[in-house]
Amino acid sequence: MDHDSLPGAIAQARDLLEHATSVAVLTGAGISAESGIPTFRDAMTGLWTKFRPEDLAMPEAFASNPERVWRWYAERRLAVSRALPNAGHHALFALEERLRGRDIDFTLVTQNVDGLHHEAGSRNVVELHGNIRRVKCFDRHHAVDAWEDGDAVPACPRCGSLLRPDVVWFGEMLPRDGLARAFAAAHSCDVFLCVGTSALVDPAASLPFIALEAGARVIEVNPQPSLAHDAILRLEGAAGELLPRLIGGETGA
Question: Looking at the whole model, is its pTM more than 0.85?
Answer without folding.
Answer: yes
